[in-house]
UniProtKB/TrEMBL annotation:
This is Sulfotransferase. Its EC number is 2.8.2.-. Belongs to the sulfotransferase 1 family. It is an enzyme of class 2 (transferase). InterPro entries: P-loop_NTPase (IPR027417), Sulfotransferase_dom (IPR000863). GO terms for biological process: sulfate assimilation; sulfation. It comes from Bos taurus (Bovine). GO terms for molecular function: aryl sulfotransferase activity. Pfam families: Sulfotransfer_1. It catalyses: 4-ethylphenol + 3'-phosphoadenylyl sulfate = 4-ethylphenyl sulfate + adenosine 3',5'-bisphosphate + H(+). The gene is SULT1D1.
Amino acid sequence: MDSKLDIFRRELVDVQGIPLFWSIVEEWSQVESFENRPDDLLIATYPKSGTTWISEILDLIYNHGDVEKCKRDAIYKRVPFMELIIPRLTNGVEDLNDMQSPRLVKKHLPVQLLPSSFWKNNCKMVYVARNANDVAVSYYYFYQMAKMHPDPGTWEEFLDKFMTGKVAFGSWYDHVKGWWEKKKDYCKLYLFYEDMKQDPKCEIQKLLKFLDKDLPEETVDKILYHSSFDMMKQNPSANYTTMPKFCMDHSVSPFMRKGVSGDWKNQFTVVQYERFEEDYEKKMKGSTLQFHSEI
């Protein structure tokens, strides 16, 4: 068997009850012992919640809106995915260790699996949450094209896995609630994908304030323009088209698919929606977290 192929479509493996890629679990000691630096900025999200979008915005902020500088490399090199380790292909820990400060560090881990150095050094953290309906749909299409995931099966089968947390990085419900509950204790900004879609300039201003950065109005407008979905979809350094096809097959589904809120209505049947909503109410009961399922 081709050595490139035998690392893909494997079943997930649990770490403390959280399903992760087998290759992350094999190198878990590297992930767990990752040494964060005090001036790191952690970007944390559940998958398919605007991770690449917020990463591009922050790289533009860190480079004062210099668009050419932000095309220096692919987004996954500029903002390494810390826990992603795939034999012969990538090691986020090593990539970050080789980077100069200040670093942007991407993570999908639930809050309880975050390496202890992030809490010890009290670095700033930005979390982005997106409504569960749209995440489930986007994740289903991502599973199809990104071959590190197990086979997603049918939409119905995948939706069941999503609702029970049997997908990579575990339960969406626990993930968004876990990070939400930590936001008061640490230097953390909690943003919502739907707010970013509705008023991106306002959310960029929130980021600037949180980071104690002051940029001229024209630079903010430039960041706004170059981090728009249409511009990023055309930008090879942001749209993941530089990833080899044996890892991500854009002919199955583009990495940047639609980038809208409310697309779940085109996927869910009435029965699926009713079942999903009933389950959602149970799992989110008692939480102060509020989401917009469309804008």
